[in-house]
Design goal:
The complex is a heterodimer of chains A (226) and B (125).
Chain A (H helix, E strand, L loop, with lengths): L2 E9 L4 E10 L4 E5 L6 H9 L6 E6 L11 E4 L11 H11 L5 H10 L12 H13 L5 E5 L7 H14 L5 E5 L3 H4 L5 E6 L2 E7 H6 L4 H9 L1
Parallel strand pairs in A: 3-7, 3-8, 5-6, 6-7
Antiparallel strand pairs in A: 1-2, 1-4, 8-9
Chain B lengths: L1 E3 L2 E3 L6 H14 L8 E2 L2 H8 L3 H13 L3 E4 L3 E4 L5 H22 L4 H14 L1
Antiparallel strand pairs in B: 1-2, 3-5, 4-5
């Protein structure tokens, strides 16, 4: 198993992020992580990235602590932490210094494919910054990609470009966990869908088997989560 | 509903792999694809339609088993020269016609009435 959550509970000061969640992720799956705000999606992805520790239970990636497997894990968080003075060339240097697996050639190909302007980020639109951040994430060569809301709050054209780059760059031995509210646009990508509600697993299902029953991932979202 | 030069998908209308296969049948039936034509690679089509490449591989596998397409080593995926194209149009028209015939019978219409109605709709474009 590439990644595992075993009876994981994450308690924050006031509320619970996750409650007794158990999930296995084999290599080579594109998984949609769906749920309403506060359902625990980000908490789950951050635990797998080793950015948070569980209150109880176990999280493992390649049978080890996520923190010790960071060279195999890409995490693209919701927060846009790009420096305003940064140009794509600065981002390239920054990522190249930080990660041995960062491929500068691939990064530049991604910038072209995603049509990222070669300007300072402070003059970029939200969509352009989102595209730059995705290029930074996908130019790394890892086995587990944790993409938290890569489509959040950006324009339709940027969303289409991002989805298409994810499809192009995905290797069949890599696992992608992608959380999104843009369920309709992204659902074709998912082989499997994990629905979370109030920090608990509401449904874990194959997307094509849902459609076999005449229901889309979106239809099921409404049914399961509302 | 996603539409893209000949490809159309509806996430609430069954598995995507079946819809992709059906799209190929339809394109062959209306001549948008002909024997010997090259199909896009699985990854290319997947990126264009924002679907999982494995789903396209699944659909192509089904079409290959049905004798519609073939992989040529190192070259890509092609419509077979002996793909049953003429039969395909007939078969799909038949499917649509039997649904119409069934509905007409339920309305107790004669075949003349049904044909007249079809002709009116047809002429109206």
């Amino acid at each position: 198993m590439l990644a595992k959550l075993d009876h994981v509970t994450k308690r924050y000061v006031k509320n619970e992020g996750l409650r007794d969640l158990t999930l296995d992720f084999p290599a080579g799956q594109v998984v949609g992580v769906l749920g309403l705000n506060g359902s625990g999606k980000s908490t789950m992805l951050k635990l797998l990235a080793g950015l948070l520790f569980p209150t109880s239970g176990h999280v493992s990636v390649f049978d080890g602590q996520p923190r010790s497997k960071r060279s195999n894990i890409v995490f693209l968080g919701e927060r846009d932490a790009l420096w305003p003075w940064m140009k794509p060339t600065d981002a390239e240097r920054f990522m190249g210094n930080l990660y041995a697996d960062f491929d500068r050639t691939r990064f530049n190909e991604l910038l072209d494919a995603l049509e990222v302007p070669r300007r300072k980020t402070k003059t970029m639109s939200k969509g352009e910054r989102g595209r730059l951040r995705l290029a930074m994430a996908l130019a790394r060569d890892a086995k587990l990609y944790l993409l938290d809301e890569p489509l959040g709050g950006i324009d339709l054209i940027s969303r289409e470009k991002i989805l298409s780059s994810i499809v192009q760059e995905w290797h069949t031995d890599e696992t992608i966990l992608l959380s999104t509210h843009e369920v309709a646009e992204a659902e074709g990508l998912f082989e499997r869908v994990v629905y979370l509600r109030d920090g608990k697993l509401a449904l874990d299902v194959s997307a094509e088997s849902l459609r076999e029953g005449g229901k889309s991932v979106v239809d099921t979202f409404r049914e399961v989560l509302t | 509903m996603t539409e893209h030069d000949g490809w159309s998908l509806d996430m609430s209308s069954g598995p995507i792999f079946e819809q992709i296969a059906k799209n190929v049948h339809q394109m062959l039936a209306r001549g948008a694809l002909t024997p010997g034509d090259k199909l896009p690679s699985a990854r290319e089509l997947a990126a264009r339609l924002s679907v999982n490449p494995n789903t396209i591989v699944h659909a192509y596998g089904q079409l290959e088993a049905d004798g519609v397409i073939e992989k040529r080593r190192g070259l890509g995926t092609f419509v077979r020269e002996d793909a049953p194209v003429t039969g395909m149009k007939h078969e799909m028209l038949h499917g649509a016609a039997s649904a119409y015939a069934e509905e007409s019978r339920q309305l107790d219409a004669s075949i003349q009435e049904a044909i007249a109605a079809l002709k009116e709709v047809w002429d109206a474009g």
